[in-house]
Design brief:
three-stranded antiparallel beta sheet, two-stranded antiparallel sheet, globular, GmrSD_C, signal, Calcium-binding protein, Excalibur_Ca-bd_domain
Length: 296
């Protein structure tokens, strides 16, 4: 998530009181554009250019939070839906996209990621990923706009297809440091930002893009926080969902291996059984013991 530096503003001599504030901030190791201060540097673009994340943030609908009544993560079908129909679930798609030096579990047609290296955007650290009961959680898939946050800001009114699309949209999914993802929880921009400051503009820009795409509203505190961050990088572009978001070999505009067996009997009749996790035709509901192999 590259950060685009704003063009240098024309020199403006601030009033004496403002100059004194800058001196105090310098002593404290802060700047006048630090998002934690809720203020922006004098001379920065107050609105953002057309197509920028800052301009889009200012246009988001502002409302209060709705109650959490009826919320269930399962309503978004994350982890069970194969939205792009390439035979792999969203988690493995994102791991394949975001990790380097990826290896795959044998027998899964290069779908189930076994290992790789993550350049974590939230911490700025390199994390080794190895699939396993004790190690998989070190790298988690974050919903940039959390499912619970979306539920309180519009998703309660969505139909099933929209929730499934949102829950598995690659623009809303990032492989990240597991403990930091746990710390974020369902936080929005007003309550949580990545510790890695270099990632904040890209992170907030992606939240804006997702909320704009799905018409998810924001609270006033959230929009103010978005504007504060993006005012430090007013040329940060608004991300778009296109083929570049998908793992190599996948194409968001094609259906891939569109294989579906209604029952294990159908799979056996077609000579496809057993079906392994990650292979076209495999579905978790066909895997009674959950061991990754269906129709044994």
């Amino acid at each position: 998530m590259p950060v685009t530096s704003p063009s240098a503003p024309s020199p403006v001599r601030p009033p004496a009181a403002s100059r004194a504030l800058v001196v105090v901030l310098a002593v404290l190791g802060l700047t006048a554009c630090d998002p934690a201060l809720g203020a922006t540097t004098t001379g920065q673009d107050p609105t953002g250019a057309a197509g920028s994340a800052l301009a889009a943030a200012r246009e988001l609908t502002v409302k209060g939070r709705a109650p959490m009544t009826g919320y269930d993560r399962e309503l978004f079908s994350y982890g069970s839906a194969d939205v792009d129909e390439n035979g792999c679930d969203a988690r493995n798609d994102v791991l394949a996209r975001d990790l380097d030096d990826v290896t795959y579990k044998a027998g899964t047609r290069d779908c189930v990621v076994a290992s790789g290296t993550l350049q974590d955007p939230y911490s700025g650290e390199e994390i080794a990923f190895t699939r396993g009961q004790a190690t998989s959680s070190e790298v988690q898939i974050d919903h940039v706009v959390a499912l619970a946050d979306a539920w309180q800001k519009g998703a309660q009114q969505w139909d099933e297809a929209t929730r499934e699309a949102f829950g598995n949209d690659p623009m809303n999914l990032l492989a990240v440091d597991g403990p930091l993802n746990n710390a974020k929880g369902a936080g929005d921009t007003a309550t949580w930002l990545p510790p890695n400051r270099a990632a904040r503009c890209g992170y907030v820009a992606r939240q804006v893009a997702v909320k704009q795409t799905y018409d998810v509203w924001v609270t006033s505190a959230e929009r103010d926080a978005m504007v504060d961050v993006l005012s430090t990088c007013p040329d940060e572009p608004l991300p778009t969902s296109d083929a570049s978001w998908w793992p190599e070999g996948a194409d968001a505009g094609t259906t891939g291996d569109d294989v579906h067996y209604a029952t294990c009997a159908d799979a056996r009749e077609a000579g496809a059984a057993p079906l392994h996790e990650g292979e076209p035709g495999y579905r978790a509901e066909m895997d009674g013991d959950g061991d990754g192999t269906a129709c044994e």
